[in-house]
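We close this part of the discussion by returning to an individual protein. The encoding preserves chain order, so positions in sequence and tokens coincide. The sequence in question and its structure tokens are set out directly beneath this paragraph:

===
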Amino acid sequence: MTSQTKTLRTFELIAVTLTALGKFLFMDYLNWRLPFVIAAILFWGGYIIWTSRRNPEVLKAWGFRTDNFNSVLKLVLPFAIVSLVIFVIVGLARGSINTTWHILPILISYPIWGTIQQFLIIALVAGNLRAFNVSKPLILILTAVLFSVVHFPSVWLMAGTFVLALFYTWIYLKKQNLYVLGLFHGWLGAFFYYLVINQDPFADIFLKYF
């Protein structure tokens, strides 16, 4: 690894950390959830485009690829089905199931934000840690802890995202496909909100502006 590459990877890790810290300021403290999400998507989307124009091969290296979509889907789908069943069981036990139609636009839009989150936590953090020769078990723990801490203070979200990050990182290190992980991140995240913790992201993010 060249010194220039090391510098770039270090910059990416710092930028991801700042984005995570920004979540606490803009989403949790100032309650600017939608502006923060849009800004994060635009910034990191711009970074992806800028970097890929300089090095087209980086997209596949990051996991923006379709050649192994089906094989990754076969690995993730059973986990997703089991997770959904657990969500329903927990939701019924807690009386927290929310059947509002609001889940539909979230199922459509959340995978976009989910893909960006997977890019940050999995591709940039886990991928760069692997490039720095960090051991695989430590990478799994570090990425899971980071993803969990970002969802503070919700205990349910922290627990759920810790488990999901362990699985997603394990899959990524084997197959490197962000499309499948981003899609299921969005869908499972949406169901987790509406089935387990009875929160309505659509109302919290969008309806406050109308």
About this structure: The two ends are 51 Å apart (CA to CA). Residues 25 and 31 are 8 Å apart (CA to CA).
